Please model this.
Amino acid sequence: MRTVRRQYFLYIAFALVSMGVNISVQIIAELVMSTFDIVFFQQKIYGNITYGFGLKILCATIVAFLFKFLIDKHFIFQNKKDGITKNIRQLFVYGFFAIFTTLIFWGTVFIFKLFLEKIIWEIIGSIIGLSVGYTLKFFLDKKYVFV
Model:
């Protein structure tokens, strides 16, 4: 039981680091898009949701996904499975669960963005969505991915 608590503590600690990575990528993407002032990024999809907003969320999600997979595999669960087939299977299952929990994150961020237009609420929505998603994902990864 102590090992599970330690793993969960480390998982959450690195989830916080991963949240920082995610939010940092969002901020950097926003700065890059505003620097180039491309009209496409400013076009609205629905309400105050723009293509640029969607792009920055997608970029942040991909970077955080790769970071977190490597940390989880090698540091948190200390999974030593070798072989291309086993690693591809792990990445696929990890990715499947990531898509599910990412929908929780995206849904939360989009709701906050849609109804509360200030950037601080968008960041708070990101933190809430990521917290719920990572907690659920720990239990899925432990039971089904890194066994």
